[in-house]
Write a structure and sequence with these properties.
Elements: H1 6-24, H2 50-67, H3 73-80, E1 117-118, E2 125-126, H4 129-139
Antiparallel strand pairs: 1-2
Length: 145
């Protein structure tokens, strides 16, 4: 059994976070929203041809798809341009809080419940033998280092 030191654990955690950021990243094309998306009104007469209705439905679907694309936190921060605000304006980057007077809570790396145990190899937390088995099979760093 290989026991990892703290720097190797931190490198591995940072690598996992970078992989998550890379997975969540999606470039969003620039949009020009000219109108609002509303429910179509019911009318007794159909004043649009069938092709125009299909074109409108397709464009609404494309617009909704573009509006719901996920962006990473870094992309959102860059797009907000909060670094241009005055330094005395509170923002996500300048927010701060004093350290907690309570000890940090430890959560299971498998299910998210409070954990009492930690893996001897990688230091990740688990709460039960079932979660320990899952951790050892799929998440433990002893297989990735």
């Amino acid at each position: 059994m290989t026991v990892l030191d703290e720097t190797a654990r931190q490198r591995n955690v940072q690598r996992h976070l970078n992989e998550l950021e890379r997975d969540n990243y999606a470039e969003v094309p620039e949009l020009e929203i000219t109108g609002t998306i509303t429910k179509p009104r019911r009318t007794s007469e159909v004043d649009l041809s069938q092709t125009n209705q299909k074109k409108k439905a397709r464009s609404k679907k494309e617009l909704l798809k573009q509006l719901t694309i996920k962006k990473s936190l870094n992309v959102l921060l860059e797009e907000s341009r909060i670094e241009l605000l005055p330094p005395d304006t509170p923002t996500y980057l300048t927010a701060g809080a004093s350290p907690s007077r309570y000890p940090p809570r430890k959560f299971c790396s498998v299910c998210g419940f409070l954990s009492k145990y930690s893996c001897k190899t990688c230091g990740m937390k688990y709460c039960s033998t079932k979660c320990k088995e899952t951790h050892e099979e799929t998440r433990c760093m002893k297989y990735t280092v």
